[in-house]
Amino acid sequence: MKNLTFCFLALLPLLFGCAPIHPSQSNIPAWDERIPLNSDSSETPSLSKRLSNIFSEGSNYHFRKVRWGFSRERVELAEAGNTIFERKDNALVYKVKLNGVYCRLIYTFKDNRLRTAGYMTITPIPNADNLIKEAVDKHGMPETNLKYLDGLQEMVWKTPEKVIFCNLSPTIEKRTSTAYNYSHRGLLRDVVRNELPDQEAGKIQYWDGAYAHVDPAFFNQLHEVNLPLSELSFYEKQLMGVILRRGGTIIPGVGTIPN
Prior knowledge:
Helices cover 23% and strands 29% of the residues. The protein is an alpha+beta fold. Mean pLDDT is 78; it is low at 13-44 and 54-58.
């Protein structure tokens, strides 16, 4: 008889199911239900989305889903779902598309603490100015807006939480094999002057751009260092516009001539 009673009790969960767990008894957030990670349900967040939600609870970020001082491991969690292009002790590099521009997404570290981050064009492209447009749309007109004779443009925004730097550098000029240029003279110079292209016919300009965010504490420390460039990694020098890609002119049939 005891054996029959034991078997009956053992079968009860199979016949009627386990008692549901009351929501207050579970520590699982509503967005992190126990479901397959590859579920096709539109209401089911992906793994990267769930990790993103972890970081979005009660936090204000300095850049994307990170804050200054984050470790490399925590930045990787914040970028879960985005494939790492390059991993170093002092940098993590991804590839992303920002405002139509294919960029490197770069995080740099010192002693495993995040101190700069931002976007850089992978190669010189005609529409790199979209990075500056993205920055202006997000932050408004900059405090500093410099334009140099060689075409380089630099913008700076400063807030208590970050220093933002954006630049646009004319890197490559490609000359096409057209036989004619607009003269800006001629009989109709007073009629069509405002309709002529900004750049000469037969020339295409390719640009490099950077859109960087810097920890203001780190930025202020650089003013107290005798040789601040020695404090910067290669990627930090690029993000801050300290070094620019060497330019050149591409001539069909001849090749690239360095400037």
